[in-house]
Write a structure and sequence with these properties.
Blueprint: H1 7-15, E1 18-23, H2 42-45, H3 48-51, H4 54-59, H5 61-77, H6 82-96, E2 100-105, H7 111-114, E3 120-122, E4 125-132, E5 138-139, H8 141-144, E6 162-166, H9 175-187, E7 190-194, H10 205-212, E8 216-221, E9 233-236, H11 239-263
Parallel strand pairs: 1-2, 1-7, 2-3, 7-8, 8-9
Antiparallel strand pairs: 4-5, 4-6
The protein binds adenosine-5-diphosphoribose (APR).
């Protein structure tokens, strides 16, 4: 037992055919991006009811657009951390071995993709995209960057309001993302649940579903999440420290299992 994770987890990863990684804001904390519900987190400074729902947007589009413009600046200037990079390394190794790997994320910061992860399923959208609330036309960054406190950004095609492509409270999650996440949860042999408080549904149902379908579910979090008692293993630690160590242990386990096969 090193870095807080069990040998059972390492062996399950080494034998897995499909691993699903489910992530939340905590995986980006070491990149300098505030989480939502931790002390000093985003929702302790800002009111989600004033910023992260459609009515708030229609009532005060400038406020909401400039807030997301600032969030976008912060995540664009941030860099993927060792946790994001380890997840991308896991994916590469699984694909090289002809196996499957899926990253199901609640994050909208695009850091998994910037770290090199390919199969990223976005449950809550992505700050890198914007679209017109009326005609649904994709709106460019240049358009969104003109957002200011006194003049909201309007669609150049229909004059509708431009909004970030993120899922706000009270909105449906993207249909295809849910389909893909449920498929991964159903077929996963291991689910790593990383840096989420697991209090926001329906997203938090995904790791639980994986467990119900037989996957070994382990969480990595600086403190137990809301589902810690419903899963197989709860690892306390920073994801940027635990994940690189877990990847090394997994590599060793794969190597030694290959060596024992070759000896036979
Ligand atoms: N490593 C691992 N876990 C960490 C780290 C770290 N370095 N730092 C913080 N955490 C954990 C916290 O203990 C907490 O459990 O990350 C979790 C962050 O939880 P939230 O702030 O609630 O974020 P998240 O679970 O992603 O929120 C879900 O809520 O506000 C909405 O749409 C938003 O996608 C978001 C959703």
């Amino acid at each position: 037992m090193s870095k807080g994770f069990s040998d059972i987890l390492v062996q399950r990863l080494a034998r897995a055919r499909l691993v699903m990684v489910f992530t939340g804001a905590g995986v980006s904390a070491e990149s300098g991006i505030a989480t939502f519900r931790d002390p000093g987190g985003m929702w302790s400074k800002f009111k989600p009811e004033e910023l992260a729902n459609v009515n708030a947007f229609l009532n005060n589009p400038s406020l909401v657009q400039t807030w997301y413009k600032e969030r976008k600046r912060v995540v664009t200037e941030a860099e993927p951390n060792a946790g994001h990079l380890a997840i991308a390394a896991f994916e590469r190794d699984f694909l090289e071995r002809g196996l499957e790997f899926a990253v199901v994320t609640q994050n909208v910061d695009n850091l998994h993709q910037r770290a090199g992860s390919k199969n990223v399923i976005e449950l809550h959208g992505n700050l890198a995209r914007n679209y017109c609330y009326e005609c649904k036309r994709d709106a460019s960054d240049e358009e969104m960057n003109t957002a200011s406190d006194d003049e909201p950004v309007h669609c150049v095609q229909c004059s509708g309001l431009v909004r970030p492509d993120v899922v706000w409270f009270g909105e449906q999650l993207p249909y295809q993302s849910i389909e893909d996440a449920v498929d991964a949860a159903r077929r996963a042999s291991v689910c790593l649940c990383i840096g989420t408080s697991a209090v926001v549904y329906p997203a938090a149902q995904i790791p639980l579903m994986a467990g119900e379908e037989g996957a070994y579910v382990a969480e990595i979090n600086i403190e137990p999440s809301a589902i810690a008692y419903q899963i197989d293993e709860s690892i306390q630690g920073k994801s940027g420290e635990v994940l690189p160590a877990l990847f090394e242990a997994y590599k060793e386990a794969v190597l030694s299992s290959n060596q024992s096969i070759n000896l036979n």
